[in-house]
């Protein structure tokens, strides 16, 4: 074992297995594992409360596995510089992330400190390695993904044997998780639905492959069935790698090829979002398609608050928004429905919805969040055309035909029949009284007329 001392900087790679930078750090010498809660004023997107809860629990899971994490807070360059000088550190190892802020921050650190080495631990293919025959970046998903499927992916790495530095003396102030990420009492409501950390990620992957992958292509769109993988927060915080998921699903492709292909294409969409963010960093705040900059979004809309609170009068939308508030999660099909309603029927800016999701999701990921909101709004890469406007009633009847998902999250409508539950406002006053669901009292009336909202949206989009 080398006598060198190196830092392994945990970021969005909160795992020990298949961690390229940790493997190399372990080879280099004794390892000081560090997590820095980035408080730099240049950091444009502080975490929302549910994401902070997930991060807290993921770091806690590492500590329970015996990792002597040194928790720090501040500007990463300042923290790392102090650690290297105080502890005579020989090198710093980390896995790359690809947001515009992360890229600039890491460049500054590499220019300022010696011995920095970075690796790919979060994507199947790094953004600069995928291009068309002309050497240009892709703008459409299908050719991008076809190209990715021709490229080799690396093998999954075993958890390394690491000699950790445990004794830091008194020169470095050690922070606790509660110092930087308080664990609020209200977050306990998430505990029953999620298990953050590497062990939780492995359980989620095993459950998905054994119980949910078969029939995934069909069942993934039915929110009441809960047949999605729930791996998105694990992928964002890195408690599992996309390479492991890729290899595990590859093993069973012969028996469930169609379902595996469909699921793996979802990994592809994640890759595509990070790819686009890297090649077009302006999409953080501006539409990928610049002509949509001039869309006449409605400011100070009265529809925003009822949308956030799940009080729109449209059951499938209210169910989704309430699920989000209670669990920090929302089924992907429902995410598309609520996003379409906000951006098209309500003509509220996609950034407003994206910001709310960022603040309330446990799997809030800048690339996926921004690009998926733009896709629904019609202004992103390979986006849904502007005239594709999800009708929440039609979507509700198609994907929640028996109302099971709605009943779970909108208990006011429990007594309605499977047919009535999608359009409760059509019930007569007598029916409402009999069923104990008076529109405007027990459950809100629709906040807008769908046909009228659709018409206004089409007129606004056509003017571009």
Q: What can you tell me about this protein's structure?
A:
It is a single chain. The protein has 464 residues and is α/β, with parallel strands linked by helices. It folds into three domains: 5-122, Rossmann fold, CATH 3.40.50.620; 123-153 and 199-279, Serine Threonine Protein Phosphatase 5, Tetratricopeptide repeat; 290-462, DNA Cyclobutane Dipyrimidine Photolyase, subunit A, domain 3, CATH 1.10.579. Helix content is 45%, strand content 6%. Helix 5 (141-148) crosses helix 11.
Topology:
Blueprint: E1 5-10, H1 20-28, E2 30-38, H2 49-64, E3 70-74, H3 76-87, E4 91-95, H4 100-112, E5 116-119, H5 141-148, H6 177-180, H7 198-212, H8 216-219, H9 232-237, H10 242-251, H11 257-279, H12 304-309, H13 315-327, H14 332-345, H15 350-360, H16 366-377, H17 392-399, H18 404-409, H19 429-435, H20 450-462
Helix pairs in contact: 5-11, 11-16, 13-14, 14-16, 15-16
Text of the CATH class of the largest domain:
Mainly Alpha
CATH topology of the largest domain: DNA Cyclobutane Dipyrimidine Photolyase, subunit A, domain 3
CATH-wise, what's the superfamily of the largest domain? DNA Cyclobutane Dipyrimidine Photolyase, subunit A, domain 3
The gross shape turns out to be globular
Mean model confidence by pLDDT: 94
| Total number of distinct structural domains | 3
Major beta sheet, specifics? Answer: 5 strands, parallel
The count of β-strands is 5
Judging by the overall fold, what is the CATH architecture of the largest domain? Orthogonal Bundle
Q: How many helices?
A: 20
Helix content: 40-55%
Measure the end-to-end span. Answer: 64 Å
Element string (H = helix, E = strand): EHEHEHEHEHHHHHHHHHHHHHHHH
Structural class: alpha/beta
